[in-house]
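Summary for the steering committee. The consortium agreed at its last meeting that each partner would contribute one worked example illustrating the joint modelling workflow. Our contribution is presented below. We chose a case with several input lines so that the handling of multiple components could be demonstrated. No manual editing was applied between input and output; the record is shown as generated.
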Amino acid sequence: MTSETMTIRQMCDLFDVTPRTLRFYEAKELLFPVREGQRRLFTRRDRARLKLILRGKRFGFSLEEIRQLLDLYYVGDRQETQLSRTLDIAQDRLNDMERQRAELNEAIDELRNQMQLVGDMLSSRHSAAQ
Amino acid sequence: MTSETMTIRQMCDLFDVTPRTLRFYEAKELLFPVREGQRRLFTRRDRARLKLILRGKRFGFSLEEIRQLLDLYYVGDRQETQLSRTLDIAQDRLNDMERQRAELNEAIDELRNQMQLVGDMLSSRHSAAQ
DNA sequence: AGAAAAGATGACGTTGACGTAAACGGGACG
DNA sequence: CGTCCCGTTTACGTCAACGTCATCTTTTCT
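What follows is the complete predicted structure of the assembly.
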């Protein structure tokens, strides 16, 4: 079931990505599957990271931006300067996301209004056509 | 100042894009500058569209998705079937954006929590170092 | 054991969204 | 008049994020 480590195929099925994608993310140092001989085994850590990666992508962040953010979640034994640098980056991303949210709210409202307008146009055409 | 039509350079300065970008958008039928001889003149309509384009991009939409949406805003004399098709597309985008907003809220909360955690770690190191 | 399936590596291909360079034309101006 | 500078077209280059082979081991099934 949710065994400690997973094969590449299990990961693909679970997250709906291709093997190529996972190997690519490893090459870009976003994931760090351990090796059992030749084969990759993905850990819980990899799963957590992949989840964040895919979410980041949905927000339009680049893999590189995401990579920097990921370091926030697996802190390990990093230096203090390292850590506070990571915090700074995170703060920047947070600001991005809040700006994005504000803009998104605006855009949603505008889009709704515009749809309303066009919708009304359509229905008035109908009543005129009667 | 805000004259009726603008040259390519004025547009670039106003929206912080390159000429190449504007020509590219024209080629992709996202903008329709009129021609004065050889030269492009961008209208108010183009400015409104460009604003929406750039916003759409910030939300991670592709130019093609954006192009379809733009048709919602300059309705003109289009067919009814055309219009309701456009409305459908708009509804899809609206759903996208609302999903994105929900997820964004979640992600912002999580990121804040995580930053709090790391921040606490840092300050506790400091007090321990005293 | 033999065949099929899964996984790895390496290399090249692709798509979207532009960048960049070459070659040309037409006003502006010193 | 020569020469910038802005703008145009055409064409090739680039970068991210994978897709798609081809080729080679390694398991796994029967």
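The first strand of chain A starts at residue 34 and ends at 36. The helical segments of chain A are 8-15, 19-27, 44-58, 63-70, 80-129.
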